[in-house]
Design a protein that fits this description.
single chain; Rna Polymerase Sigma Factor, Chain: A; 9 helices; WH-like_DNA-bd_sf; RNA_pol_sigma70_r2; RNA polymerase sigma-70 factor, ECF subfamily; sigma factor activity
Length: about 190
């Protein structure tokens, strides 16, 4: 049985009209990619599942705030997932749970992604890998590591202003590298 494919505009219309079919399609087609981002940050299956649930509730409840002029729907959802995972990572309850857990409950990093999502991920990863080393480190720590600019500054021992300037330059360069690719570069919402 072939999976039904709908356009982003159709999906957005379904979500804005609060159609449950839109939510189901969203979950079926994007949960793997969003879970992958969340898991790379929190690294625990139980926590990642909780954040995942929160992310879909946030998407559902705040879909009216989505602005297509600022980012693609996919990018907007990835930012919600990333920020939610970082918030969970920094929460007191998560820190307390870490103290009580002896063995990490890791899952396979290769969450079920669609062919298109795998292609998009590989294109972004190729772009990141083509950046000069100091840019690559910043993007990897911010996106894959879930670190804030302040944390990156402390970890690398470089001034916060330098981290901010290099991150902007790295994202600009990455945007140029991916300009022929069909989606807009992820906008990192660093706290």
């Amino acid at each position: 049985m072939k999976k039904e494919t709908i356009s982003t505009e159709q999906l957005l219309s379904l979500l804005l009209s609060r159609d449950e079919n839109g939510f189901n399609y969203l979950y079926d087609n994007y949960s793997g990619a969003l879970y992958g981002v969340i898991f790379r940050i929190v690294r625990y299956e139980v926590e990642a599942n909780e954040v995942m649930q929160d992310v879909f509730v946030k998407i559902w409840n705040s879909i009216t705030s989505y602005d297509a002029k600022k980012a693609t729907l996919y990018t907007w959802m990835l930012n919600i997932a990333r920020n939610s995972a970082i918030d969970r990572l920094k929460s007191k309850s998560f820190q307390n749970d870490l103290k009580n857990q002896s063995i990490p409950d890791f899952v396979n990093d290769n969450a079920a992604l669609s062919t298109e999502q795998v292609h998009e991920f590989h294109e972004v990863q190729k772009g990141v890998n083509s950046l000069r080393d100091d840019y690559k480190i910043l993007i990897n720590k911010a996106y894959f590591g879930g670190l804030t600019q302040e944390e990156i500054s402390e970890e690398l021992g470089i001034p916060l202003g330098t981290v901010k300037t290099r991150t902007r330059a790295a994202l600009s360069e990455l945007k140029n590298i991916l300009k022929d690719f069909k989606f807009i570069i992820l906008f990192f919402l660093i706290k």
